[in-house]
Amino acid sequence: MSGLEDVEARVAGLGSAIVAFSGGVDSSLVACIAARALGGRALAVTAVSPALASGELDGAREVAAAIGIAHETLTTAELAREGYRANGPDRCYHCKSELYDALGALAQARGFAAVLSGANADDLGDWRPGLRAASEHGVVHPLIDLPKARVRELATLLHVPSARKPASPCLASRIPYGTEVTPEVLARIDRAEGAVKALGFAELRVRHFGDLGRLELPADVLDRVPEGGELERLLRSAVRSAGYAEAKVSRTPLRSGSLSAGFAITRSP
User: Do domains 4-157 and 171-258 have the same CATH topology?
Assistant: First the structure.
């Protein structure tokens, strides 16, 4: 169980903590460890905003109940921040600043000693401006020395329900940098992805390019969607049903974070 004891000891040493909790594998493992190490002095908090995809909150509630940690929600207002709406390469910095402002205020009001995130070692090799916001707010990253693969192993070991859950970043990640983030665009993306999921597809992204919605699927799934075939036509129709004038099924497999490719790496754990 290499790594688990060290992480538990680090969390226990904090005395109490709030976990920034999305319900994904990283934050779920942190929440599970916090529940084990701190008991009732741990609280998982899920931020709710128009950028949260449908179904994610219900999933987070189910995971929190399964691992036995108290769970609450709070509403964040990242859309009120000009830097977030402008959607530059530092969008996540403004989003996480809003999140950690809110969680920090809650921690102070409730007497929690720290705010925890699920950042792991793999995040240090990716474009993560949100880590700068975390550093500015003194957020603790218990998993920062563990690679993603080890995080999943530990989550499986501890029977965390989301141990194999694919990454599910916020809806704004589907919008190319430089295109304004608005509630209407976020809602359209959410509708489009929901329509595709209703056809039985679990992992996907609908990238927003104005009137065009571009659907991306994992490589193994894409192999089962012949170009020009009936299934591809159904998928395009599902995307258009959300309000896109045009829809395309990308023949390039889904890669999380593809719109951030080429940006310099931010290392600020």
Answer: no
